[in-house]
């Protein structure tokens, strides 16, 4: 029971303690939580948060506390957080120790309190027991005493007052015997009469015995049996005597003994007659029973005395003395037997008249409890003092209740405390772990950044000298070299270029890794880009005898908005990959075919027509099934073929681009990791073809950034097809017509010149014919397709439309020279159309074409490109021949296109540089203004801007390019604030750094100071184009 | 002299200058920039370069004569000179400038002085050669021929 109580109490106390502790802990943690917020530990905080919500149980409360803590302590805490972490820990440990000590004190005090209570209770019960016993003993004694007193009156009445006496020994004995029940405590009663010496003789005579003295009796206590009165000596002569004349049967032997002769008795008697009250002797051994007893003596007077009588009067009036022998031992024993719990209490009775030497009257020496209670006994004799000592027989029991309750309390409190302490400790540990991990994470991130930085820097640093090497090699090529030397130089150049492109790739990868890659959104012409790429690869492919072709569906808008550079990079990577796969092949024949469609078109074609026969490919070699390359595309598999592409939004253009080759294909085991960075198909291949293996992974990233997907199918020894989708925005559809005109006019000089011209393409392969038609249509030429010469002839001779140009595939021409010449002869009869032979490479054609006679048809080497076609056609047909047949490079053409009419500010302190830069820009048609210092530049470049762009030297005296740019940007910023939402183009001028020192002009530094890019000095056409095209998307 | 002969001489001379590294591709680029709208573009630029060169060389000499030498100042001049020589395509001058700058960076006075001498040397050679080149061009033009471009 008590244990249950203890546990209950403990729980209650525990609960009471728990609540404030929880509050404290949660406060502290809210505090930490805020700190954590400050240090951006969001993840942890959210967890913390949940935990705390549970704790406080109410969100509002949390928010409130949160704010409160944030205001008060958040900031301070933030600063000292790390510093005080360990301090707080030791503080917690100290608190824990203090807590334990506190509870030990509490529980021990409780223990003391409870045990003292128990002792007190015990004491009280002992006191009451003792007092009860004492009272009862006293009562009983008093009863006996009263009786004896009554007897004394009886004697005075019937013995002394009557003459002759009515009482003799016999009567007395009988009477006392019969009334013994009234005096249970007296073992005997005797009466001694006062006899003066003068009366002695008469008295002795009367009684028939002499008065005997008592002292010998006292000195030699004898056994009852041997007891003989005769042995006692007669009493010596005294002034007076008090011989016993009557005695109860039990103490009959004391008759005739002079009571006054006994020392003790004498005193007793004397005191009794003086006081007139009952007087007790000191305890002594009773003669017969050998038990402790006392004698109570009453004086019997002759007459009734007043209560205030003097002792002398009392002595005079004394007649005799009545004494009763009390057997105290048995008295107490009897009494105790009547009472309960006699077993547990030990009672001792002492006569303490003499304080220093108390006389034990009752009780054994049994050892009991040390503690005892003393009750005074009043037996009616003021002279004698008696005390009753009570003690418990058993030692006090162990205070189990106190022990249980205090120990239980301590255990519960310590447990609760430990739970708290452990929890807090655990929190500290997890906090520490968390901090440690944060630290590690920071370091890892820093290391990652450092790695990327290192990569970027190293790449940059390599690029700079490589540019020098390449430039030198270029110069070397221009010198007089023999064939071998030229070959060496070309090889070195090729390697250098490969290295630079590799470095660029690594840079890209680093950018992707660090998430710095950002796509531009500028308007661009997809077809022009493809022409570029084609140009890039035409040399390589011609060397290999591989046919290159590009086909763009006419549903694809002319103008798209997106990142042309990156798009170009993807296609270049894919084509480069395809070319690589060719090198390995023994025959090295086949094609690489790039097609671009709208996704909608392709999806429809899937539904409508099943794939045409595998023979129907560009070069006649079988290819991998294109459809399988996009099997994995999510957009296609989800919600049906038309699902996500049927949206009527004209703004977004979903392109699907596929690059198909008939190379060796990719080994099956390598296909799964083809998009993993730095994974090579096969180390042996990479050794043969070079490449880092990151091109495809970069492509995949780029495609992903264009919201597209990339996939491929590859069949060993047949070929591979890579397909990707990309989402672009339609380039301003409203002004579409106008722009289309411009685009077609400018770079491809002659499109309008061929307007209305009809052409015939003779080609047995429909796909190849389609490609030819695509390019011709870009020149605004109407195209008819036939599959062989006979059909072509009939169309020319009978056709309604006048066909002025005929394109014949080399393979058709070569098939049979007689048919060819027949064809030529026949066409000549009519209005002779111009003949063009489309060949794959010059070398392979020359041998067979020589014999075909006059007029020698013009040979066009594939890959077809609109610009090249236009030039060739112009030259052959004499249409608008400007005499300038120089093969215009695309970048400079486009540069002209981009820069014509632009107002450009050139800032350079060096007059030579300034003039050269201005000259170059003027060459491209720009309107150039020059200034010679950064300060002048600032004065010229005040928003709203008069200039379309600014080329700024970096290193200038007084104010360098960075500083000038920063100031200009500040001015622009202020202006834009004033202006609100004015048109941006006037408020921000593109500033490009010009530098001869590529190392110094890291891109970041330029961007940091607000520049938009940099160009090397002196200008390189392609770099200039790349940078400028970012700001002038179209004229 | 025959125009064709003059033209050949010019071609040869220019090729020799390219070969010997006096000039580089940039000079050819510069020539490409010259057209009907600016017939004397190259000569203008080169004249400017000459003026610039003389001024800068004087500055460098003066700067190197001072005690103590302010290498930063020298370096600034050399940087300028490097920029302008790169712009006209004076390859050898440019290369010497690069070396010069290294010496400036290491504060090697002896090297700097040597470089300055070399620069002066290179410059006078280049100037002579270019002047000869322009004289040939003038003669060709005077004879009514066109100036051949070098690819």
From TrEMBL, chain A:
It is a multi-pass membrane protein. This is histidine kinase. It comes from Arachis hypogaea. Residues 163-389 form the CHASE domain. GO terms for molecular function: cytokinin receptor activity; phosphorelay sensor kinase activity; protein histidine kinase binding. InterPro entries: 2C_system_His_kinase, CHASE_dom, CHASE_sf, CheY-like_superfamily, HATPase_C_sf, HATPase_dom, His_kinase_dom, HisK_dim/P_dom. Gene3D superfamilies: 1.10.287.130, 3.40.50.2300, 6.10.250.1190, CHASE domain (3.30.450.350), Histidine kinase-like ATPase, C-terminal domain (3.30.565.10). Pfam families: CHASE, HATPase_c, HisKA, Receiver_CRE1, Response_reg.
